[in-house]
Amino acid sequence: MAGRPGRFIVFEGGDGAGKGSVLAAAAEALRADGFDILTTREPGGTPEGMALRALLLSEAGEVWDQGSELLLMTAARVQHMTRVIRPAVAQGQIVLCDRYVGSTLAYQGGGRGIAPALIRQLHADFVGDYWPDLTVLLDIPPAEGLRRSQRRLADTATDEGRFEGLALDFHERVRASFLAQAKDMPDRFLVADAAPPLASVQAHVLAGLRAWLQTSLTTG
Asked: Thymidylate kinase-like domain spans which residues (predicted)?
């Protein structure tokens, strides 16, 4: 469906919420609908971002000062936005991204305690204050999400468990931040309960995305 304007849609949520699986299913279905879909993730999306991802998420890696962690996340996002996201949206693609600045506000802000105003200022200064057109928030109680995530990491032998190793109250603060963001911008959020079986969550999110895209692309 050439000639349509692009859109930037982000999937957010705590660890174990199923973002990657829900995003992949949505991408497949929307491609079948005729949309030009690009999928990406943070940290990542560029070679520089993937290198920083390994540094930031490895359970066996460095223990970063919270300020350093914030700056590295922002640095990866600058590369991602400049080289991938903005060009794709400008070309009319629908970009589906696993995590974005909402996660920084939740993890480094809510979880670590860095002032949200500082995170937003960095985003304005270095990422051009570029925000998603829509955020899909997959909400799950942290204890259940962590059980799922730790099982996935063990099953796949993936060394990205640094945040999963943090205390439950950290993840409770992360969840509270995500829900507060959704409350502050209800028109830009689609909140879905991520606790039911995956197929049910995928179907619910896809229905919401199709309805949102129809309205968004019709109204411009």
From this structure: 11-203
64 contacts 56 by C-beta, under 8 angstroms: yes
- pTM for the whole thing? 0.91
Q: What is the pLDDT of residues 105-129, one digit of tens each?
A: 999 999 999 999 999 999 999 999 9
Measured between alpha carbons, how far is 96 from 215 in angstroms, rounded to an integer?
Answer: 17
Which contiguous run of DSSP H or E holds residue 123?
A: helix 116-126
Q: Is the pLDDT of residue 3 over 80?
A: no
Compute the distance between CA of residue 48 and CA of residue 167 in angstroms, rounded to an integer: 29
Q: Helix 116-126 vs helix 66-80: angle between axes, to the nearest 10 degrees? A: 30
- Cis before 43 (ω within 30): yes
DSSP assignment of 21-90, as one string?
HHHHHHHHHHHHTT--EEEEESS-SSHHHHHHHHHHH-TTS----HHHHHHHHHHHHHHHIIIIIHHHHH
Domains of the chain with bracketed CATH: 7-219 (3.40.50.300)
Q: Which residue has the tokens 């969840």?
A: 175
Distance CA 200, CA 175 (A): 21
CA distance 13 to 16: 8
Taking the C-alpha atoms of residue 71 and residue 64, their distance in angstroms, rounded to an integer, is: 11
Neighbours of 146 (CB within 10 A): 20
- Integer-rounded Cα Rg, in Å, for the chain is 17
Residues 209, 97, 214, CA angle at the centre, nearest 5°?
20
